[in-house]
Every structure is written in C-alpha cells, then in structure tokens.
Amino acid sequence: MRFIFVLILAATSWCRGDETISGRWEGSIQIPDREQKVIVDLAEDGKGGWTGSVTMPGLSVKGATLTDITLKDSELTFGIKSALNVQRVGPINFKAHLASDDTLTGDFVEGGNTAPFTLKKTGAAQVDAPPRSTAVSKEIEGEWKGEYEMTGYPRHVTLKLLNHPDGASADFVIVGKKINNLPVDLVTQEGDLLTIDSHETGVSYEGRWHKQNAEIKGTLFQGAVETPLVLRLAK
Amino acid sequence: MKISRLFLSGFGLLLAGICSAQNMFRGDMAHSGVYSGPAPRQFHRMKWKFATGDRVVSSPVIQGSTIYFGSDDGNVYAVDAGTGRQVWKRTTGGPVCATPAVAKETVYIGSYDGKFYALNAQTGAVKWKFATEGERRFEAKNLHGILPKNQTIADPYDIFLSSPVVVQDAVYFGSGDGNLYALDANSGDLKWKFKTNDVVHASPAFAGGVLFVGSWDSYFYAVDAKTGKEKWRFHGGEDPLIHNQVGFQSSPAVVNGVVYTGCRDSNVYAIDAANGKEKWHFPNELSWVITSPAVANSKIFFATSDSSLYHVVEASTGKSILKKQDKAYMFSSPAVVDDVVLIGVLNGTLEARDLNSGEVLWDFQTEASKQNKGWVLTADRKFNQQLLFYSGWREVPIVGSDKQLSVGSIFSSPLVSEGVVYFGSADGFVYAID
User: Fold this and answer.
1) Which of A69, B102, B270, B376 could serve as a FRET partner for A88 with CA atoms 20 to 30 Å apart?
2) A142-233 has CATH 3.30.70 classification
3) Considering only the top CATH level, what class is B23-433?
4) B126 vs A190: CB contact, 8 Å cut-off?
C-alpha cells in the first residue's frame, strides 16, 4: 500500500512538472548593473521531449532555439547555441528550479559568470520554430563549382546539393591554402534564390539560379566581407 | 444622373481608399499622417505587447489583420493584429530601422545591410532583393561639437532608414549611399537612381507624379517619378562648423500642392510643390524638427527635439495656433485620428492629445521609463543632461545618447486601426493599446 502511494505521488509530481513547465516565461537576469529582460517559451515537442526558444530584448536575440532541454522533477536546464556568438565565446546555459507558484528561479551562466534569474509564467508558449532546410529544385541537385580571389590568391569552391525527405543538405568546401570543409546547417530555395548557411563558421552564400545558363550568380559572405561568386554545374 | 452616381460611387471608393490606407509610412503616399477612426480618446488597457530582440524604431503598418514592422534585431515581422502572435519573421543582414510598405501581397523594406527586400506578405519568403551602394549614417568632424574636433563621428541621432513608397508598379526609397532609388516593384530591377550629395534617410512622399524628399546635403528635392529627373531643389540651412543645423531627416507631407517638411536647421518649411518656392517657414530656435508633419483640417502638427515643444500651425500661413511644452525630445511623427493626435516621446511615453486644445488626454509610459535605471530621466521625466552629457570629449556624448534610449524611447510613429494604437519602443517591444 505504501509502495503504491509512493508510486502515485511520484507520478503526480512528474506530471505536475510536465504540465506546468509548458508556456511563456518572462522575467529578468540580474547581471550586475544590467538587468537583462528574458522571455522563454517551452512546449512539448510531441516526441516525449521539449522544444523552446528564447528572446532577449537589447541583445538582438529573438526566438533563438533552446538546446539540450532537460526536465527532471522540478529541475530544468537548457542552453543557447545559435545566438550571441556562442561559437567564439562559449556556451550559454540556464539552470532553473520550478517552484509551486509558477516561478522559475535559477542561474544564468555566460562567459564564466553566473547571474540569478527569475521568470514568471505569463501565458501559452509561443515557440519560434527554427528555420528548416527546404528541398531544392531537381536541376539544382548535384555538384557546383566556382572560384574567387581573396588577399591575392584564388579559392576554389565546391557545393554539393542533395535532397532528402526533410529538406536539402549541402557539402560546402572552400580550398585555398588549406581545405575548409564548412558545416552547413541551413539550405533554402525560395523561387530562384538559393541560400547556404554555415552559422558555426559565419560563412554563407546567397545566389540566384539562372536556369538557362546553368549557373548560380551570387555573393559569398564571410563576416563583413562580401565576395561575388558564380557557381557552375560541374560536368 | 447615371454619370453623377458613377462619379459619386467612384469618389466614395477613392475616399475609402485614402481613409483606410495604412499600409505604408505615414498612412498614405502623400504622408498626411491622418488615420481612420475611431479616435482613442481614453486609455483602457494594453491589449498585447510583442517582444523582439532589439529596439523597434520602425513604425507598424497594417494590411488586413496583420501588422508589419522591422526591428533593430535584423528581422522584419508580420504579427496578428488581434492576438499579437507572430505570423512570420524574416532575418536580414542588419538592423531594420525603416517602416515597410505593403502592396500587391508584398512587403517592401530596406535594412542596414544595404539591401532592399521584397517579401511575400503571407509567408515572408524573399521575392527579390536589391543591393544599394551600401548604408551608412550621417557623419562629420566635430559633429554637434563633439571633441576632439578632427574626429569624424557617426551621428547617433541618425536613427531611421528611409521608408519606401509604392506607386503602381514602382517602389521608391532613399539610401545612406545618397541615392533616391526607383525599382520595378515586381522584379526589383532598377528603373533609375537620383544622386544627392549625402545620406538620404528621409522617406519620399509622392503626389502628382512627383517624389519629394530631403537629403543630408542640405537640399530638398522634387524628382519626376517616371524619369528620375530633378524638377527643382530647395536649399535648407547649412552648418559648416559643427554640422548640427543641417540636413533633412524629417519626411515630407504633401497636401493641396504644398510640401511640408521639418529640417535639422530648426525650421519647418512650407514649399510650393509646383516650383519649389518657399511659402513660409516656422523657426524653432536651434531645435531640430525630425518629426514628419501631419496635415489635417488646414493645420500642421509637428514637434521639436531639444526644446520639446508640440506645435500646431496654420497650413496656409505658418502662424502658430498653439504650442505645448512637452518633457523630452520628439522624433516620432504625430498621427491624427479624428479629434486626437498621438505622438511618441523619447522619454518612453506615448501621448494622446486633444486635436483642438492640445491638452494631453492620456499617456502610456513604458516599464523601462517608469524604472528610470541610472537616472536617465529627471524626476519630471526630462532627460538628465547633467549625468548623461557630463563631458563633450570622445565617447561620452555617444554613450550618453545611447543611454537616453534605455528608457524605452518611442521613435516609432503610431499606427491607429479600428481604435487600437500600435507602436514600437526602444525597449524592444511593439505595443497594442486600446
């Protein structure tokens, strides 16, 4: 009897965490001399896990995808990997405790510093869906090649596009003095506009597909540097 | 009888079109700043607020049940006007400090990345992009007297980007590269560009086949919309010493053949749209007029920066009808709705004033303004000049001007639709108030 009671209690408390964590949470991080507003949206992802996004007004963070979301009893953790230059500066993490009064309190960890935060539930979740790769036209699938010059010597670019059921993927290689294999996280085609993004390296390519010339005419962005780049279908 | 009925119904449609057009900066192509009622004479509640990642100096526009605006976080947003829920967002490569124009299911807007975007109004998908010669802010040595004298300073008060006007198959906008551009609205192909000698961040108005816009080069231009040829130019003030009293940042309104525009030389000008001759000017004692004048009931409504005055003058003569002392700079352009005038103030307040008396009917203060962290404001909501600008050297004035915005300054010009007021704030939120 006692065993059953404990099981029921455990199940109730687990369900409670699950039900109450979903929603929009608003509050602030108490960074010394700088109170930072923060809005966190959390929702079930339909696969037994969680999905979420964060907005931080004043830091140009809008709807950044939450990563590594874990909820155990009333303890919640999540991180940010797609904003605030985390690739260069290091990971950003939130560790929170869910209190019975619909309050999330915890620590915000950034750059080796820790600041407390408090969030209150204010309504239903408005999770910003992360951008997803689209399929590309059949004629664009395949290997494209081009070259450009930077700081006095040529760079050779190879872009391989391949469609999958959940969108296209790309192998993006730039060969200069060394071989740079750029990890691509987003491939989109809107009309004749093709975009390839490698957020981790800060390199992207945007080009317009000219079907009749079998070429993609566009610009390679490397941080603040923009370089014209024409890609042609490899034979 | 048949003819007059047709004429009447056509005229009615035209009027309805003008009254309900709120799909571009200042409501219509001529930038009258007049919006359809009912007028929000009383403050009831904040209906919703929508968070972005950075300042919102862009002004919301509405098409159907969706509002559109930009944010300094680099995104263009479509938000459901009723619920405040995001419909879509589209990321550009820089802050979006302009106000979009919506026409033919397309959202047109420029970004600080130097590109001009045409987006699908339903989905946010890019229809086309046009690359200008690049954005930049107005800059000068010894700007506003900032020291040292030989240092070139980018103007921290050059806040807005030029907002487009769409006329039939063409879209027109200014750029930090000094050009006024005309693009094919369907393809994004360049029709023509008109070169001025400095930054064009004012927004062109259109009337009678002519575009009207000022440049930071101290001239105000009338340009033939079809050919891109100059029709006339009007010379505003110059300030070769500290470049404080020069340039057209205000966007014009064109009503009944007269162009009304503010200027950094501290004047409001009324200029004959046909020939560029000055009809009158209204001086403001060294105080900039950044607001774009609103024109209603044969009156001109505008406000000033440093002197923080709200003015109403006669449209025909420029004679003062009333002036009211406000508390802080005003860059937001007034919106006239029936018998109410709405305007944003840089101390984080949105004010509703009675059209006739000029008295404040109600105001809304952002949380950041109420909190007043770091005493950016004095106790009576004026800017705390002593703490903000304690020195004229190096970065102090720049940091001070940046701190001014931390109270949720309202640069955005209010949009009013069906009694609801929409506006952005430097606190990163767009507010809906009814």
Assistant:
1) A69
2) no
3) mainly beta
4) yes
